[in-house]
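Figure 3 (text version): structure tokens given as input.
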């Protein structure tokens, strides 16, 4: 925007103020200060750059300096007028920023929860760089604390991504205490970098990445997948810092028919409750055994047991359940039941 594009109305009355006030050195009246603040607010709402506005005020000061009078009076008058103009400008800018932040928050809520008319949602999203005709992927990061937009963690992650990728149609926000990144589905490098930076900024938090999904409803779907993946990781005890929903599709499939999963867990693993000490020690043994790829020595180390003690526990499982963890067919049934037990929280949760 050039100086010539600044309308004269934004300097309305400035020459008269210089002429009248500078001649005597008096301070500006309340009405004059109010008029400067109002014009500053108009300039902010119109989107004029502050540098251009200052240049125009300085040019007007030079052009209308009185032929007689103390130059210090002129400078003092200009200082008061420009300061009042700046006050109005800054106040209006803060209001605009708050309005933009509120609009962005409302848009994010509608996108993540799949609310609103799709046509209007697409138009609103365009203002913030999202093109809902494209597919998007949502990544969600959680840490030991709850975060919001004002948190240093949120600002650091956003600053890093914007500095690295610039305008890539990325939207960063927070929701329910978690960091959220919405990015075009084809920009895997953005989500990978978000995961890396969020992991470091949250002091070793966990990040889940949903699957790419098309349209406005796709953003809500991808977000739900990412959040569900975080919840799944907690229930299953996963240690990986970054999890992708696409790699864990078997778990939602298992959980979809809850009654069938309950029947499988109770029928297959229910007899373990007859063991001395209950089902928990033997279930933990199966967890470790399957998690280590059925390598007894490694599983024993994970449980701080001797291999002999671990082998004894596996034999107790075979005796009580009638299923042998070493047999390929029985192993499949047992492992599926163990996954179900983790999903359902059994045996600590009553089924």
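Below: residues designed for each position.
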């Amino acid at each position: 925007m050039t100086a010539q594009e600044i309308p004269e109305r934004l300097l309305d009355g400035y020459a008269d103020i210089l002429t009248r006030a500078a001649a005597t050195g008096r301070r500006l009246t309340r009405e004059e200060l109010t008029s400067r603040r109002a014009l500053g607010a108009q300039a902010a709402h119109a989107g004029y750059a502050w540098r251009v506005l200052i240049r125009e005020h300085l040019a007007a000061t030079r052009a209308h300096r009185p032929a007689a009078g103390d130059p210090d009076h002129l400078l003092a008058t200009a200082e008061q007028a420009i300061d009042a103009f700046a006050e109005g400008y800054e106040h209006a800018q803060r209001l605009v920023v708050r309005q933009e932040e509120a609009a962005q928050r409302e848009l994010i809520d509608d996108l993540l929860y799949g609310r609103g008319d799709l046509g209007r949602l697409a138009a609103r999203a365009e203002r913030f760089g999202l093109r809902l005709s494209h597919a998007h992927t949502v990544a969600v990061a959680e840490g030991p604390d709850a975060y919001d937009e004002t948190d240093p963690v949120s600002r650091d992650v956003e600053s890093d991504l914007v500095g690295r990728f610039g305008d890539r149609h990325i939207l960063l926000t927070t929701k329910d205490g978690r960091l959220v990144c919405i990015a075009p589905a084809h920009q895997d490098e953005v989500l990978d970098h978000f995961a890396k930076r969020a992991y470091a900024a949250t002091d070793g938090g966990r990040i889940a990445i949903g699957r790419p999904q098309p349209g406005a409803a796709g953003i809500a779907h991808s977000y739900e997948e990412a959040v569900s993946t975080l919840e799944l990781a907690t229930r299953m005890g996963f240690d990986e810092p970054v999890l992708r929903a696409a790699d864990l599709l078997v778990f939602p499939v298992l959980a979809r028919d809850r009654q069938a999963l309950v029947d499988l867990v109770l029928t297959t693993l229910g007899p373990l409750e007859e063991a001395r000490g209950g089902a928990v020690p033997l279930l933990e043994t199966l967890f470790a055994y399957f998690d280590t790829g059925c390598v007894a020595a490694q599983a024993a180390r994970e449980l701080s047991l001797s291999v002999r003690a671990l082998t004894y526990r596996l034999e107790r499982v075979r005796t009580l359940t009638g299923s042998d963890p070493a047999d390929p067919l029985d192993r499949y049934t047992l492992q599926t039941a163990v996954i179900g037990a983790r999903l359902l929280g059994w045996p600590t949760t009553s089924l």
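Residues 290 and 335 are 7 Å apart (CA to CA).
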